[in-house]
Amino acid sequence: MDLDKKPTEQARKATVLAESAWLITVFCVVCGAGIGGLATLLAKWLVTLKWAPLKGPWKLLTSVPEPGLTLGAVTVGALLGLLVGLIAVHESLSVRISDDRVVLTTRETSQDFGHDDIASAFRDGKQLVLLAPDGMEIAREDCGLPWPRLAEAFAAHGYRWVDEDPHRDDWRRWVPGTPGLPEGADALLRARAKARKQGDSEDARELRGELRRLGVLVRDEKQRQYWRTPRQP
User: Fold this and answer.
1) N- or C-end of the chain: fewer Cβ atoms within 10 A?
2) Strands 224-228 and 15-18
3) Cβ neighbours of residue 205 under 8 Å, at least 6 residues apart?
4) What parts of the chain have a pLDDT lower than 70?
C-alpha cells in the first residue's frame, strides 16, 4: 500500500445536503401573503350572502376601507407565513455524509453515527431511516431532501442504500393490550398515541426514544402506530 498516495477527492470531502432556508422562508411568506389576499375576497363574498357563518366578524373586517383592508390582510398573512417558515427551517433535516460517519442535524440537535454503526439506510415514506447491524433503528427523521441525491450520496461514501425497509414484513399494528410487547411498552404506546392526537410532536418523539430503550421500534401511518422488535436481516 502506498502511504504517500493522496486520498481521493471523494474520500476527503463530505457531502452535505440541506434544504434551503431562504427558499423555505420565501415560499411560506408568499403563500401566507396569498392566503391573506384571498381572505379579503372571501370576506367580501360572504357578506353578500343572506346567511353565512360568522357573518358579524366578516362584516367588521370588510368595514376597513381599501386599500387598507387588502394591504393589512396581505401583511398579516406574510408575517404568519414568515413564522411558519422559521419553524419549518428549524424542523428541517440536514445530512452530512463522509466516508467515516454520518451526521443528522435537526432542531439544533445533531446525531453522529460512525460508518460501522450503519448497516443500511432507506426511505420510509417521508422519513429517512438508518439501521444498525442488529436491525435496530438508530435514526428515523422526517426528510424533505431530494431522495435520489440522498441515495447517491450514501452509496458514494460506501454506505448501503436499500430501496425499501428490509423489515417491512415484521411490523405489526398496535392496539391497546397487544400481546408480545415488553413490559411497559403498551403504556408508552398509549401515551404516544395520545400525544400524536394532541399534536405534541416533541412528546411523541421522546416517547419513541423510550420505546427504543425497551427494544421496541415504532413507525406511524396516519393515526396508526406500528411496532416491531429488532431482528437482523
Assistant:
1) N
2) unpaired
3) none
4) 1-12, 20, 22, 52, 54-55, 58, 85, 87-90, 231-233
What residues pair up with 123 in beta bridges, in sequence order? 128
Q: Is the Cβ–Cβ distance between 32 and 84 less than 8 Å?
A: yes
Closest Cα partner for 175 from 124, 116, 227, 101?
227
* Residue 10 burial (CB count, 10 A): 13
CA dist., res. 187 & res. 191, Å (int): 6
Residue 68 buriedness (CB in 10 A; 0-12 / 13-18 / 19+): exposed
Nearest alpha-carbon partner for 25 in 72, 86, 71, 78 = 86
The total number of residues shown for the chain amounts to 233
pLDDT at 148: 95
Domain definitions of the chain by residue range: 18-91, 98-156, 172-228
85: cell is 417558515
| DSSP code for 67 | T
Sign of CA dihedral 192, 197, 198, 201: positive
Q: Which phi and psi angles does 78 have, rounded to 5°?
A: -65, -40
**Bridge partners of residue 102, in order along the sequence:** 97, 113
**What does each C-alpha distance from 97 to 18, 110, 119, 149, 179 come to in angstroms?**
11, 13, 14, 12, 39
Q: Phi and psi of 118, rounded to 5°?
A: -110, 115
Positive or negative: CA dihedral 133, 137, 138, 142: positive
